[in-house]
Design goal:
single chain, mainly alpha, elongated
């Protein structure tokens, strides 16, 4: 599963990683904005990751990366 998060795989995976980093920084630094942005990026990243892995065209696009 970690092999899916290697660089060059998909933008969804990069967004998940960035979202988790922002979530952690928001919690450590107690900055609410970073926490909210991290949560949004993580959720959008998971959605893009799942849609990209289905292998079917969704919304007229075959790939979202």
């Amino acid at each position: 599963m970690l092999a899916e998060f290697l660089p060059g795989k998909s933008k969804g995976a990069h967004m998940i990683i960035l979202g988790v980093i922002l979530l952690v920084l928001g919690l450590i630094l107690n900055i609410q904005l970073l926490y909210i942005l991290g949560a949004i990026l993580a959720v959008v990243g998971v959605v893009l990751f799942v849609v990209g892995r289905t292998g079917r065209a969704v919304g007229g696009r075959r790939h979202y990366y």
